[in-house]
Specification:
Elements: E1 2-12, E2 15-26, E3 30-34, H1 41-48, E4 56-61, E5 64-65, E6 76-79, H2 91-102, H3 107-116, H4 132-144, E7 150-154, H5 162-178, E8 181-186, H6 189-195, E9 198-203, E10 206-212
Parallel strand pairs: 3-8, 3-9, 6-7, 7-8
Antiparallel strand pairs: 1-2, 1-4, 4-5, 9-10
Bound molecules: adenosine-5'-triphosphate (ATP).
């Protein structure tokens, strides 16, 4: 699986929020996007999954151009900004509703994913009673439950406590092992350095630096 951006620019209300980006992301890697607030990380992720289309240039998934050959990537899990869950439903019921769209996974896989993010599948409390960290964990669960080829996580460490961050790091490594292409954004360089195989630094809608990480844990050594 390859996502390729060629000369991609996105202009919103006369403002270049993404400015001539050329980049290739490949399966089996954790790609970190680093940048301050407003640098364009969320926009890049929205573009990568077809939620918005470029004003100029092309984005392709395995050679198929988004907005032309395909509307969305076939298999993608997304956590971008606040996950949209139903307040009155439990975590399990929310995930079950989302899973019913594709109808690819059963109850046990949903329960297993809820456990993976450190929540209790038998917790009957409605989503509105969840803490911020629990909401974030459920959002991560929704993104990975169907074992998608592409996993996009925008600031996944937001609201997570230390144990949540550790859990997320394990999940990211397991997802890479499975062969997924994972893109995560963060303003926290330490976390990105720990898990990423590559880090792209964004500034004012541009990719200004590309760091390839090395180490026993990194995909580049495999
Ligand atoms: N709906 C919109 N209309 C106009 N400009 C927008 C809109 N949404 C975002 N922008 C602008 O796009 C730029 C990139 O925003 P983006 O949300 O991608 O940044 P980010 O790196 O994800 O920041 P953060 O860390 O704050 O989430 C910013 O300058 C922002 O003001």
């Amino acid at each position: 699986m390859v996502i390729e951006f060629i000369n991609v620019t996105k202009t919103i209300k006369g403002h270049k929020v993404i400015d001539n980006v050329n980049v290739k992301f490949e399966s089996g890697k954790i790609i970190g996007l680093k940048g301050i607030n407003g640098s364009g990380k969320t926009m890049l992720m929205r573009l990568a999954c077809g939620l918005i289309l470029p004003s100029e240039g092309t984005i392709s998934i395995d050679g198929k151009i988004l907005g032309k050959d395909i509307t969305f990537p076939e298999s993608v899990g997304i956590l971008i900004e606040n996950p949209a869950f139903l307040d009155g439903y439990s975590g399990f019921k929310n995930l079950k509703m989302l899973a019913s769209i594709k109808n690819e996974i059963g109850d046990e896989q949903i329960r297993e994913t809820i456990r993976r993010v450190g929540l209790d599948p038998d917790d009957r409390r409605p989503y509105r009673k969840y803490s911020l960290g629990m909401k974030q964990r459920l959002g991560i669960a929704a993104a990975i439950m169907e074992k998608p080829d592409i996993v996009l996580l925008d600031e996944p460490t937001n609201s997570l406590d230390i144990s949540g961050v550790e859990l997320l790091k394990d999940i990211l490594r397991q997802e890479r092992q499975r062969g997924a292409l994972i893109i995560i954004s963060s303003h926290d360089l330490d976390i990105l350095q720990e898990v990423s195989d590559e880090i792209h630094v964004m500034e004012r809608g541009r990719l200004v630096d590309h760091i390839v990480m090395e180490g026993p844990d990194k995909g580049v050594d495999k």
